[in-house]
Amino acid sequence: MRRLASRREERTSGDGTRWDWLTHLFGEVKRLPLTTRGRLTLAAAGILAAGLLMADVGTYFALTFVQSNEADAQLRAQVGRVASRLEVTQGRATFTGNALPQETPDGIAVDLAVVGPGGVLAATAAQPFSTGTLEDLARPALRSGQPIWLETTAAGEARRVYVTPLKPSPNQSVVLVASTSLAEFRASTVRAMTLVAALSVLILAIGTGLVYWLLSRALRPVRRIARLADSLSERDLNRRVEVRAPDDELGELVVTFNRMLGRLENSFDTLRGFTADASHELRSPLALMRTELEVSLSKPAPPEEYRRVLQLLQSEVQHMTGVVERLLLLARTDAGQLKPRPERLDVADFLHDTFARWLTRASQQGVELRVEAPDSGGLEADLDLTRRILDNLVDNALRHSPRGGTVRLGAWPEGGGWVLEVADQGRGVPPEQAGRIFNRFARGDHARTPDAEGGTGLGLPLSAAFARVQGGHVRLASRPGSGAVFQLWLPEGAGGTQVPPTDPPSSRE
Prior knowledge:
Blueprint: H1 2-30, H2 36-83, E1 86-89, E2 92-95, E3 111-116, E4 119-123, H3 131-144, E5 148-154, E6 157-166, E7 174-181, H4 183-218, H5 220-231, H6 249-298, H7 303-334, E8 343-346, H8 347-364, E9 368-372, E10 378-381, H9 383-399, E11 406-414, E12 417-423, H10 431-434, H11 445-448, H12 459-468, E13 473-476, E14 485-491
Parallel strand pairs: 9-11
Antiparallel strand pairs: 1-2, 3-4, 3-7, 5-6, 6-7, 8-10, 11-12, 12-14, 13-14
Helix pairs in contact: 2-4, 6-7, 7-12, 8-9, 9-12
């Protein structure tokens, strides 16, 4: 048992050693300083070489099989011709009275021998086997009476041997031994395989070159993308990959990369505009404050003048504080740090609470504030964020409503959630400003009402951001000239799992 186990381990370790060189070779290839194109070409060449090797091996076995069958067919045919005209008399065997033939009608050399129980009765003149060998070859067929096929060596060359028993007469039993040389067959096989190997090497060289050329063409867009990405800066985001690519993975890569550059360009443009607007928004009050301070410090002034300056500075500081706080909120929202805390809100109570908080402001401006609350209904939402959204919308509506106008609050279920609507009777939002009204620092004050008090341009962007973090959105649903109608859609359940409606419905005035 120990000896068998040791032999098994030796075989296992031998197989492992046998394949270790191949694993080592692939490891060395991976460590070669090749480009992706080189590695792919090498891999394709390896696959092609393996395929050609398998094809060559298959061709070799096919040729060997065909030639072996051809040799067998020649021997069988020659034995059939000789057996039909073989004469055995008085311990002698003749071919219709003549010596045994040494060739087939096609000129193939076939050596024959007739062997009886007593020994060799006849043989061709160029018989390569000795008398003893012929008797040894014939003995199994004499005993069994069955034909025998075998390959052996004689005079230093391989020969195919066919041994078949014959009964030239009822009382006689002999064996006919026919053999032919396989040297010519194998020589033709070597010539054919040499030609096949040369063609395989040529095909491998052409195929490798073709693969390298095709990979060069296929990876050209990738190289251009790499060079473009390496040379890009924030000032060159308007550049694009201009290369013809097929409608496949590479074409999709080019299109995707160009789209990414477009998004980056839009993001940088938005960031530049945002920075410029924020700088302008903060620079104006700072300039005003600086001017007032310089004038106040340049000469003595009565206490009332100092009080006026301090009150003005206090107002500007409050304005700047509000801008900075809104910017910080937007930054937290963009960074995903603003997490809503949903709770159950009664829609009707929420609308009436908003109505009560803004009623005094509406009365001071001479605007009628009206609420159209549903009979019942609730949703899961963050109370503070939702209140700030609706406060921004109501404040925007009051600032742009003419004296004697009406601001209406309403709500209704829609698309697995609730729509909270704020509608005013101002001039509405012009079409050229509708697409950017939710941009930061975008203002439509003068387009809507010339005498309206301007805001910071951050109310609507904040409202849209607060809605997004809750899985909803804010949309402009009015038409120009019919007043501004803003609608807040929030999912009924927490987390925003419902799908919001795609098309903004018309206002329900």
